Amino acid sequence: MTATAYAEWEQEYAAQAKPRADIMAAEVTASAEARKATEAMIESIGQAWLAEQILLWQKYWAAEPKDNIHRPKAAVFTQAKTDLTNAQKRAADQLVLANKAVAAAKTASSTADTAQNSAYAIADAAKTPRGRGLLHAQQSVQVAKASYAVAQAAAKATTKVPAVAKAI
After folding, report:
1. Cβ neighbourhood burial of 10 (10 Å; 0-12, 13-18, 19+)
2. pLDDT tens digit string along 24-43?
């Protein structure tokens, strides 16, 4: 009896090997993309902060008399203007990266869903419980979906930052 149960389990386990592997790969991809979107969000916020600091510096010196002996040279003001433009552009560039990460995370989440449905079809055909042959990959489908949601949230936050960097 034990040998029969073992053989049945091995057959069920082996039958769902490909969907299980696809789900695990999708989880890894979705998690990596969530991280990329989050890093893009953080970088965009950092660039907005830099833009704010430059604008505060410009505002300070705009209120000072032109003959102030501590006033920076014209080249410093030119550099500040260039740095401000660059910070605003880099903040906007992060949105492109975040959106690419969302698209890739969405694909990975869909891949995990498709693989889970494939595993369910295999289980149904064999008249075995759904998900049992997936083992830990059953939870990995949820992790892939959650990672996609994280990527979406990070990208959504990133969409506001370029406007803030210009409006400061």
Report:
1. exposed
2. 999 999 999 999 999 999 99
Q: Distance (Å, rounded) from C-alpha 34 to C-alpha 88?
A: 23
Instruction: Give the range of the structural domain holding residue 39, as residue numbers without chain letter.
Output: 2-167
How many domains, the chain? 1
Contact present, 148 and 85 (Cβ < 8 Å): no
166 contacts: CB under 8 Å, gap ≥ 6: 51, 88
Residue with tokens 């049945």: 8
The CATH number linked to 116 is: 1.20.58
78 CB neighbour count, 10 Å cutoff: 10
pLDDT of residue 112: 98
